[in-house]
Design brief:
Layout lengths: L2 H4 L10 E4 L5 H11 L3 E3 L8 E6 L2 E7 L20 E5 L3 H10 L5 E4 L5 E7 L5 E7 L3 H4 L9
Parallel strand pairs: 1-4, 5-8
Antiparallel strand pairs: 2-3, 3-4, 6-7, 7-8
């Protein structure tokens, strides 16, 4: 790409992410992303493998694909999602999120972003992917301090 072409190209945000798993894992992932994160199942193209598209604010945000190749080597326990470490979802409602996660009986951790006006919640999905929920730090005023602090 030439320097003049790069000025026309801009990345704006993550459109969606896909989890490719064995079809047998789809029910627990569907439950996690709908019950815990409040996503809603919606339209999905007629692919030749099972799956679900999960939506937030009318946007297909998470694609669950039950098309893991047979015989694909298992990820090591130390890196269950390979080199892909986490995905961050911008969120609002820090206090309500804490209350919801508590009611679901889930474990999570929280941390401010050093030097930035952001506050994060981290939780793990059923296949080991870390989900980061990023809030405006101003929400701490209403939500109060974290009881699930994560040390960097």
């Amino acid at each position: 790409m030439s320097p003049d072409q790069s000025s026309d190209m801009r990345l704006e945000h993550i459109d969606h992410f896909t989890l490719r798993v064995a079809a047998a894992r789809l029910p627990e992932l569907l439950d996690f992303y709908t019950r815990v994160l409040g996503l809603r199942e919606g339209d999905r193209p007629a692919f030749d493998f099972p799956g679900h598209w999960l939506y937030a604010q009318g946007q297909a945000l998470v694609h669950l694909a039950g098309n893991e190749p047979v015989g694909e080597p298992a990820a090591p326990a130390a890196l269950p999602t390979g080199k892909f470490n986490h995905v961050s979802l911008r969120a609002t409602g820090l206090k309500a999120t804490r209350e919801h996660l508590q009611a679901q009986g889930l474990d999570w951790r929280e941390a401010p972003v050093p030097g930035a006006p952001l506050h994060q919640i981290f939780l793990i999905d059923p296949v080991g992917l870390t989900i980061e929920l990023t809030f405006d730090a101003a929400e701490l005023h209403e939500a109060g301090p974290s009881t699930k602090a994560l040390a960097y």
